[in-house]
Amino acid sequence: MSISPRKNTHQVLVGNVKVGGAAPIVVQSMTNTDTANIAATVKQVMELANAGSELVRITVNNEEAAEAVPEIRKQLDANGFSVPLVGDFHFNGHKLLEKYPECAKALGKFRINPGNVGKGAKRDTQFQQMIECAVKYDKPVRIGVNGGSLDQAVLTRLLDENRQKAEPDELSAVTREAIIISALESAAAAESFGLSKNKIILSCKISNVQELISIYQDLSSRCEYALHLGLTEAGIGSKGIVASSAALSVLMQKGIGDTIRISLTPEPGAARTKEVIVAQEILQTMGFRSFTPMVIACPGCGRTTSDYFQKLAMNIQGFLREQMPVWRDKYNGVEEMEVAVMGCVVNGPGESKNANIGISLPGTGETPVAPVYEDGEKTVTLKGDRIAEEFQEIVERYIERTYSA
Fold first, then answer.
1. Beta 377-383 vs 369-374: how paired, if at all?
2. Which residues bind [4Fe-4S] cluster (predicted)?
3. Which residues face 112 on adjacent strands?
4. Average pLDDT rounded to a whole number, residues 384-392
5. What is the pLDDT of residues 329-358, one digit of tens each?
6. pTM score, two decimals?
7. What is the pLDDT of residue 30?
């Protein structure tokens, strides 16, 4: 199956990052620190950026958070991190942006949820205030509609219209339309307040995979705004990874989507960077972008009763990912490298030959030696207690020799 060409959308510049148009699909993430805690937020933003997040969203929910944003930006810049910050505003964003102009200036983008900008007559006024602030400081805006906080005025209006039909639509269809209409009407309003098309990114996020796919297909056919993809409240662990992969892969295969976030619930004590890694691996395994050398490893079977090859594969993968912040600038094209770590002679030599560099470890009952292949040719056979260390050294030498500028 071929990948559909990316839908032609308006390109949006978020800080130094291009979103939409012909730009590569952008990976973004969000901190879960208290933004008012400057040290903790700076630390997590740097961790996310090092992992490969190209945009990082932070919560701006109160005056303390708004006041902290300029200092967070200052410290990031001082540490050599230019990653743009996206301010996440709900309920009181209009007040915070007006009272703290330095916060507005420090942010690379505003995120506004039309369902959370105010009720009744206040809604349009407060939305307008935020858009006019974006125009004043030349900032792009993501208008992010969420199924869980949908603008009830829009939903009520469409339900009333639906009741007048001879054959009313199902509630799920009306809700999907309400989500799309909320995004499109809000974008039109933003344009009427002076925000240009190339300053607008839209998202319509819900937690049901099939509904999300349906919504974005419809939304994409009805506008040319850059689109942010994400399955909101994706879940924890494998459920969140699988659900996000299923939804976003289908959409990107159809050429829909300009930037993505994987909204994983972190497992207790787990690094926030997991969502960045998952986003990168989705894009890389589908062939959209390359971020870090990929490790090919077999699943193991009765031939591989030792866990040696699993540990080696895990250690090599961790080593490659840890080195990427340094290697990105030092080694051109290293992110496209493939490393094979195989556990026996069935597929081991073949997969190792097909990779840039690979090792075929001995399975149960096999001769305790491990041939290493570089660009299809066997170069050395490792044996003894230092196979893992020696293979890592060989990988490092291969990278130095092959990818140095």
1. antiparallel
2. 298, 301, 344, 351
3. 89, 143
4. 95
5. 899 999 999 999 999 999 999 999 999 999
6. 0.96
7. 98
- In this chain, the answer to whether the domains covering 12-286 and 294-403 adopt an identical fold is no
Chain CA centroid to CA 195, Å: 25
Residue 306 pLDDT class (50, 70, 90 cuts) = confident
Q: Do 173 and 212 touch, CB atoms closer than 8 A? A: no
Q: Which amino acid is at 141?
A: V
**pLDDT per residue over 86-129, tens digit each?**
999 999 999 999 999 999 999 999 999 999 999 888 999 999 99
Q: Which CATH superfamily is domain 294-403 in?
A: Sulfite Reductase Hemoprotein, domain 1 (3.30.413.10)
291 Cβ contact partners less than 8 Å away, ≥ 6 residues apart: 27, 52, 280, 283, 284, 324, 335
Question: How far apart (Å, rounded) are the C-alpha atoms in residues 258 and 20?
Answer: 5
What would the two tokens of residue 6 be?
């990316």
- Closest Cα to residue 374, out of 346, 394, 404? 394
Residue 103 annotated as part of some ligand binding site: no
Domain borders along the chain are 12-286, 294-403
Give the burial string for 165-185 (b: 16+ CB within 10 Å, else e): eeeeeeeeebbbbbbbbbbbe
User: Would the annotation count 301 as a binding residue?
Assistant: yes
Instruction: State the CATH architecture for 12-286.
Output: Alpha-Beta Barrel (3.20)
Say which amino acid occupies 183.
A
DSSP-derived pairing of the beta strands 357-360 and 369-374: antiparallel
Q: According to the annotation, is 223 in a ligand binding site? A: no
**In the 3-class helix/strand/coil scheme, how is the chain assigned residue by residue?**
CCCCCCCCCCCEEECCEEECCCCCCEEEEECCCCCCCHHHHHHHHHHHHHHCCCEEEEECCCHHHHHHHHHHHHHHHHCCCCCCEEEEECCCHHHHHHHCHHHHHHCCEEEECHHHCCCCHHHHHHHHHHHHHHHHCCCCEEEEEEHHHCCHHHHHHHHHHHHCCCCCCCHHHHHHHHHHHHHHHHHHHHHHCCCCHHHEEEEEECCCHHHHHHHHHHHHHCCCCEEEECCCCCEEHHHHHHHHHHHHHHHHHCCCCCEECCCEECCCCCCCCHHHHHHHHHHHHCCCCCCCCEEEECCCCCCCCCCHHHHHHHHHHHHHHHHHHHHHHHECCHHHCEEEEECCCCCHHHHHHHCCEEEECCCCCCCCEEEEEECCEEEEEEECCCHHHHHHHHHHHHHHHHHEC
